[in-house]
Structure formats: structure tokens, C-alpha cells
Amino acid sequence: MLVLGIETSCDETGVAVYDAAQGIRAHRLYSQIALHAQYGGVVPELASRDHIRKLLPLVEETLREAGITGGDLDAVAYTAGPGLIGAVLVGGTVATGLAMAWGVPAIPVHHMEAHLLAPMLEENPPEFPFVALLVSGGHTLLVDVAAPGNYTVIGESLDDAAGEAFDKTAKLLGLPYPGGPALAALAEHSKVDRFDFPRPMLKKPGLDMSFSGLKTAVMLKVRELEAADELNESARADLANSFQCAVVETLVAKSLRALDQTGYVSLVVAGGVGANKKLRQDLQQILSQTQRQVFYPRPEYCTDNGAMVAFAGAQRMASGQPAAQGVVAKARWALDELSAM
Ligand code: KG4
Ligand code: ZN
Question: How far away, in angstroms, is 70 Cα from ligand 2 center?
């Protein structure tokens, strides 16, 4: 089975070919970072227009790299949401049109399901059931993954998503968009958790999280340092590091609590913030001390990409999910609404 995957939910145009026998045959990514950088964040209308410009050439390149033509495919999968509605519509419309032309089904894919299944593309995939920590620019979710398609959200951020907190805090520190990787890089120049920012909701029972207060704490500290004329390079690195320590410690503690609560022994981490080195190291270290294991996609499959969409579409297709009638596009779409596979 050969499935083309198309991802356009935000600012990355991703295309891939998944082969059920061989794995990912080809994948291409075009990032719109340079386009949005001057605005300090993603401008939805510009994102939609750029997906229109880049998507078809990227499909052609990917098929060529895989050594196939459209006629060889068994399905075209696309991210149908959640995401920026205009951007999602571009991917959905192109995917549905191509599927019609090639006489194959178009499979709508839930973006977060694609993220949480991405570690299955690696050599040592997790076994069900597991807890998934999904941390991206738009979501921070702890999910009880009982079986493929059987998802229960057991914890989430009540305000900013973890990636959003990284991006907003990076902006406060004068770092370029997208802030997450830039802030993580700046934090590497500091060795101390100098400011000991609050670990939001850590002392409260339960699995929900909150990150907006943390961003405010950084803002107040920035102002204080500025007023004292002490906001130098080393202080900025310390601020970045202390912020990262607070977020990572919170995510690690809540993930451990989710494992305790479910009794599962496997944790899957996916989504853009899953590329964060400190989060990966800390989870690896803490879980290896117990009989538990953490699974990640490779960093390029953590952030948005076509490979995870092709793979999730192939699983949905193999489970007998009927093809979509018309284009499916949803700005909001709860993970718990999905049907079991
Ligand atoms: O999953 P993703 O590519 O797109 C969404 O679906 O949102 O996640 C993007 C988010 C951004 O907020 C970005 O700043 C963050 O992931 N991110 C990181 C790192 N790489 C990406 N945050 C912290 N450390 C990183 N290394
Ligand atoms: Zn994403």
C-alpha cells in the first residue's frame, strides 16, 4: 500500500510517500519561517497563499524521489485539522482533487493523531497502550492511548500551549520567530536555574497544566533586570534556561503522574516541543531509572511534516475507514472524537 501524505495545517508544507512494506519512501518539507519572521508570528492568510504556491511542486518532487507516479498510489491522506482553516483547506482541496484524478480515496487525518503515531515510524516503535505527551505550538495534551484510534485526553494546558509559551517568552527576550528552538539554543549558554520561576500547577493534583503565568513571571524579571541595567547576554541566557527548566520540569512531572495514573509503562512524546533537547534528556534519564520507556519520533518528524500524515492515513485506510465525501476541514477537532481503528 502506497499513501501520499499532505500536511498544511500551519506554516510548513509537508509531503511524503509512505509504503506499508518499506516505510517512508520520500518526504519533503518547505518551511514558511522566512515569510512570517518579519511579522513575529504566523500570518494565516499569507500561510494559505504560500501553501498554494508550494504544494503541487512539492508533490511532484516527492513522487519523483519515491520513484513512482500518482497512478501508483492507493490513497492520498491530508491533515483535515485542527489548524489554521485557510491553510487546512488548501491541503484538503489539493489532496481531494489529486485523489479524484488518480481514482483513489482521499483520507482526512487528525493532525494530533498524526503527531502521536509518528514514533511508530521509528525502528523501535512503542506498543499500545501508552501515554502520549503532545506538545506543540497549539496544543499541550496528555493522552491515554488505549489502542489505535482510542484516545482519551487526561490532561491539558488550561491556557497557553507549551510551544506558545516558548514562542512568547522568546519574543520577550528579543529572539527571532519561531522562538522555541532559538530560546533552547540561548539556554545552552547558561548552566544555572538562576531565577527559579514557578512550576505552574505542579503542587495541585491532576494532570492539567498552565503556562501563561510563567511567561508573566519572565516578563516581570526582564523588566526588573532592565531597570537595574543588568539585562546583559549572560542574564538573557539565564532567563532562557530558567524558563526552560520550569517548563521541562512541569512536563516531566505531569507525564510521570499520567504514567502512574494509567499504570502504563510507555510514554510517547511528539509535537514541536518534543524536539527540545532538555525535555528529551530529562525524560530519558528519569524514565530509565524505573521500568518505563520513552519514545520519540526523530526530531524532523516531531515538528510538522508529511510523513506522519501519510503514516496515519495509511493506518486509517488499513482499518477500513471509508473515504471522505468532499473536503473535510476543521479549525477545531477534539482528539477524543476519533473512532477506534
Ligand atoms: O508541532 P509543531 O511543529 O507545530 C504545531 O502543530 O504547532 O510545533 C511548533 C512549536 C513551536 O511553538 C516551536 O517554537 C516549538 O514547537 N519548538 C520547540 C523546539 N522546536 C520547536 N520548542 C522548544 N524547543 C525546541 N527545540
Ligand atoms: Zn503540529
Answer: 26
